[in-house]
Design goal:
single chain; about 550 residues; alpha+beta; Porin; 2 domains; two-stranded antiparallel ribbon; about 20% helix; elongated; disordered N terminus; SLH_dom; SLH domain-containing protein; signal
């Protein structure tokens, strides 16, 4: 296909309007009065176009693709003087004439110069909030956690199809109180550790987007420790997954299917420990609380029912260890506590309008009989500023703790569009979260939600016992204590029937970007109770995050 030289010259001028050279007409057939004079003169002065040996320009003469490629090559040579929009226009031309540019020895997008180089984005986050040993209002106990997280995020483009992503991070206390992290047992304060490291490779049609710092986002396979977000809010899980995945479709628009297999690495280990490893030495605790002196004053039928409840537990004890959520969960001490799982999700996006999610997660290995969950989520932009969203998650496994197949849901709205790249941008919103015990296992996008939904007592001593069993999730401790404390059949029946654990609460959030690269955030959890109506304390959290490239 050929083009008139004057049209190419004008297109180049529009693409590179930053050129402002002023010079006399370099061509004998381009008069000062010609409508194209300024375009031709400026592009000639910049060395983008030249004429024929006889000194003419011949603006109406059709030129070949090869001659057009020469003009594009000269624009590429001036890439450093262009803004992002102009670079995008030039790269679009370069892609269209890539074969001719290769014959000229020009590398499209300067790939050879960029490949192998690593882009570094430093993330500095300072935050403060109450960290609870006991979040319930009547017996609350907490300390103020104030500290910083520093992350070094890297992107290395090995070739047009292959990209390596990495992240080193560290947590630093700023007030002497240790910073909480679900992986804290694997690293120390102020010590660098690996947050994520994975490589992706694109299959099928090659994707190139010179405007994006990321690698290809469609039709990719990946291996390593990579990020996974369930739903649109990430309350259920927003963490890492260690294993491999394959993705069909474009993650930025339209539909894409992702299948992953490996281990979820950002679960709340204190919360999931009894599920995975059981409660050790629980036979001794049962013997202690079964002392006849604690039964005095209770009717015979209450004593009988308590004995039956105790016998149920005793039958489930294996080598002194009790598994409260499912029998035959035999994850040994010292074994990797990351939950082995298979994960699948399908997401359809219409950028700026809506996105729909459907996903499923099944635990495998020793915890396979605890989690078989599926969910769906929707995010819809009513206007360019008002967003409505909702999520639903169901665990199809019937768990004995509350004798139910637990579920959770979230509904909420956000107003505004806070972007770290747009100074003065903002957003605020409100969500309501209703999460039954057994649908959340840690790794929430919100530290407040995590403290509500996965609350753990720091030092639990069972009712009528004298020996501490250490950290214990509220979903088990409260249920057990309520049954022990019951003095009448009515109280005992209520203790057995009343659901324990989980949380239902409101979460308000606000974000503001005062300058490019800095985002300020505040969130507030309130009107929180567990599933049995036990009130939790209100929690306020502040955070400032700076991004440096």
């Amino acid at each position: 296909m050929s083009h008139a030289k004057i049209k190419v010259a004008l297109a180049a001028l529009l693409a590179c309007s930053a050129f402002s050279a002023s010079a006399a007409s370099p061509f004998s057939d381009v008069d000062h009065n010609d409508w194209s004079y300024k375009a031709v003169a400026e592009l000639s002065a910049q060395g983008v176009v030249d004429g024929y040996p006889d000194g003419s320009f011949k603006g109406n003469k059709e030129i070949s693709r090869f001659e057009t490629a020469q003009i594009v090559a000269r624009l590429l040579a001036k890439e450093n003087s262009l803004n992002n929009e102009q670079k995008a226009s030039v790269h679009k031309l370069a892609n269209a004439y890539s074969d001719e540019l290769k014959q000229l020895g020009v590398r499209v997008d300067n790939v050879e110069k960029k490949l192998g180089k690593t882009a570094l984005i430093t993330e500095i986050r300072v935050s403060g909030m109450n960290r609870y040993d006991n979040v319930f209002k009547d017996t609350k106990k907490s300390h103020y956690e104030f500290g910083a997280r520093v992350g070094f995020n890297t992107i290395t483009k090995v070739n047009p199809r292959t990209t390596v992503y990495g992240q080193l991070e560290t947590y630093m206390s700023l007030n002497g109180q240790p910073m909480y992290d679900v992986n804290a047992d694997q690293h120390e304060d102020s010590k660098l550790h690996l947050g994520r490291l994975f490589v992706t490779h694109q299959f099928g049609k090659e994707e190139t987007d010179p405007r994006s710092p990321m690698g290809p986002m469609s039709n990719i396979i990946g291996i390593g420790q990579f990020p996974v977000t369930m739903g649109v809010t990430g309350y259920t899980y927003k963490g890492n997954f260690k294993g491999a995945f394959i993705q069909f479709g474009d993650a930025n628009k339209g539909g894409h299917l992702r299948l992953a297999y490996g281990r979820a690495t950002d679960i709340n280990y204190d919360y999931t420990a009894p599920m995975q490893r059981g409660i050790h030495n629980f036979d001794k605790t049962l013997d202690e609380i079964s002392d006849p002196k604690f039964m005095k004053g209770s009717p015979g039928d209450v004593i009988l029912k308590k004995v039956r409840e105790a016998n149920k537990i005793k039958k489930a004890i294996v080598n002194g260890t009790f598994y409260p959520l499912a029998p035959k969960v035999m994850m040994k001490d010292g074994e990797d506590a990351d939950v082995p799982a298979a994960y699948a999700s399908y997401i359809y996006k219409k950028p700026g309008k809506y996105e729909v999610h459907a996903y499923a997660l099944k635990a495998v290995g020793p915890v396979s009989n605890i989690v078989q969950a599926y969910g769906t989520a929707l995010s819809y932009n009513v206007t360019d500023k008002l967003n409505l969203h909702g999520e639903y998650v169901k665990n199809s496994v019937k768990l004995p703790l509350n004798d139910e197949r637990p579920s959770s849901y979230t509904v909420g709205f956000t107003y505004g569009n806070a972007s770290v790249l747009k100074p003065k941008s903002y957003s605020f919103g409100l969500d309501y979260i209703h999460s039954q015990a057994g649908t959340y296992f840690g790794g929430s996008s919100s530290d407040i939600a995590d403290q509500y939904m996965a609350h753990v007592y720091k030092d639990w001593i069972p009712e009528h016992a004298s020996t501490s069993l250490g950290k214990m999730p509220a979903y088990f401790a409260d249920k057990f204590d309520n049954k022990i404390k019951a003095k009448t059949m009515e109280e005992l029946d209520k203790a057995i029937a009343t659901p324990s654990g989980g949380a239902k609460f409101f979460l308000a959030k606000a974000q503001y970007v005062p300058i490019k690269g800095l985002i300020l955030e505040a969130s507030y959890g309130f009107n929180a109770t567990d599933m049995g109506g036990k009130q939790m304390d209100n929690i306020f959290r502040i955070q400032a995050t700076a991004y440096i490239k």
